[in-house]
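Lab notebook, design round three. We kept the backbone fixed and only want residue identities now. Task for the bench partner: fill in a sequence for the structure below.
Input structure tokens:
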């Protein structure tokens, strides 16, 4: 399925964005391990999160839809049943890495697999520390899925300094730490998304976090059991960010996004775009366990920045959009320290470079970074200020975020753009097309 996107002049309206993907995965996992029934409100019914739900159903967990809510009858930390076949986690790296942390602690072995993109993603980052704890987990191929997990009897807690910044690795180890005899300690250099820490606390698991200029320290105390909880899942900031940028770069636009998750470990893009001169207001902030707010965006002239590398873990999924913002800004934007971008649903440094090239953007890819030349500096981009991008045919490489970022860039192109292979958008954002249309975009699927 491809999308055809016509340049659009003005985007206006108020929109509600579906639930947060990272929080939805964690909510299913914690609810399944709780001793009793939990209620999830705002669960994201995207392919990735449904893959996690299905995997737990295959291990004996029952769930019920009650109106807007999803009830999950947890079976306790040790109550899952051996699945009858391999667990297929589709496209989801989060599901595979976090569930590995749960499965290593079970009294049965299991096998995890996924689609062709997931089968290419690096898993040694979890295999090494889990093995250090004494768990049995191995990759069938060199460091990539499928993964095989065997039953373990003796497990140690871990004291681990993470060599890369990854919330998925941190969270995998936090789940595995539930099954150790003593508290585990995990250190990260820059704070990555802390949804597992917050979710564990909601389910009564004792977690301590301290941060200093050396980084962030997380201590997980293994509980005897996990108490069920009622969880409200806020709207996904990463999904909202496509519309935040669309409002900034489209003439005469004014968009309001309601009840968006604004956990500071996720909103690096807001900081970057505000530094670039984006007119973005954060109103009506709530103090829920995951804070939320209404985000209001108006058309803005953007200027280039030199991105602070400490922001990278907090905008890792928004980098494709930041590339688009930089292409439309005045000046040269420099973004360094983005090696991790190569290990996402596609090699995003590569796929976004190809997308920018098709749009006629000038840039230089460096070892672990990119310099992007903005509107005033480009030799190839059109002099037409309101439509600087070329009419393009973009390959999404089957990656939802490349597809959606390219849709947003197409708004500023000289003619109708075709974004190839957009099916994967449903892994994170089932109603993306509907919201685009509601705001006034001329977009259709073919
Ligand atoms: C996620 C963490 C991030 C992010 C992914 C979701 C999570 O990955 O890219 O989309 O839910 O923990 P890394 O932590 O591996 O960078």
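Proposed sequence:
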């Amino acid at each position: 399925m491809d999308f055809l996107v016509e340049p659009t002049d003005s985007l206006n309206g108020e929109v509600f964005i579906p639930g947060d993907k990272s929080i939805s995965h964690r909510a299913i996992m914690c609810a399944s391990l709780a001793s009793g029934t939990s209620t999830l409100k705002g669960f994201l019914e995207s392919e990735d999160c449904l893959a996690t739900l299905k995997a737990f159903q295959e291990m004996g967990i029952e769930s019920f839809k009650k109106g807007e809510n999803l009830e999950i009858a947890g079976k306790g930390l040790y109550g899952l049943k051996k699945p009858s076949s391999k667990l297929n986690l589709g496209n989801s790296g989060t599901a595979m890495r976090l569930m590995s942390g749960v499965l290593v602690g079970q009294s049965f072995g299991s096998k995890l697999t996924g689609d062709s993109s997931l089968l290419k993603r690096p898993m040694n980052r979890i295999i090494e520390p889990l093995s250090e704890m004494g768990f049995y987990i191995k990759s069938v191929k060199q460091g990539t899925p499928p993964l095989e997990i065997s039953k373990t009897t003796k497990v140690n807690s871990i004291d681990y300094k993470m060599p890369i910044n990854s919330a998925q690795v941190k969270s995998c180890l936090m789940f595995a730490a539930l099954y150790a005899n003593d508290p585990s300690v995990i250190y990260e250099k820059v704070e990555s998304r802390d949804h597992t820490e917050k979710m564990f606390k909601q389910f009564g698991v004792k977690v301590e976090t301290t941060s200093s200029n050396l980084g962030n320290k997380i201590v997980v105390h293994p509980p005897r059991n996990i108490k069920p909880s009622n969880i409200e899942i806020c709207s996904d900031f990463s999904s909202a960010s496509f519309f935040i940028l669309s409002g900034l770069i489209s003439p005469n636009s004014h968009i309001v996004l309601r009840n968006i998750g604004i956990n500071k470990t996720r909103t690096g893009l807001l900081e970057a775009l505000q530094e670039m001169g984006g007119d973005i207001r954060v109103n009506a902030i709530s103090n829920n366990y995951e804070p939320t707010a209404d985000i209001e965006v108006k058309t803005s002239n953007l200027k280039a920045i030199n991105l602070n590398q400490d922001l990278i873990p907090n905008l890792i999924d928004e980098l494709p959009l930041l590339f688009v913002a930089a292409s439309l800004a005045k000046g040269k934007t420099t973004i360094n320290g983005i090696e991790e971008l190569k290990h996402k649903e596609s090699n995003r440094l590569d796929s976004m470079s190809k997308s920018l090239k098709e749009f006629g953007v000038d840039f230089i890819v460096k070892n672990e970074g990119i310099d992007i030349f903005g509107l005033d500096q480009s030799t190839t981009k059109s002099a037409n200020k309101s439509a600087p991008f070329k009419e393009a045919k973009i390959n999404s490489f089957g990656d939802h975020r490349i597809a959606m970022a390219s849709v947003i860039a197409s708004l500023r192109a000289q003619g109708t753009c075709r974004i190839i292979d957009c099916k994967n958008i449903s892994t994170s954002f089932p109603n993306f097309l509907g919201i685009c249309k509601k705001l006034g975009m001329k977009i259709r699927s073919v």
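Keep this in mind before ordering anything: DSSP finds twelve helices and 23 strands in the chain.
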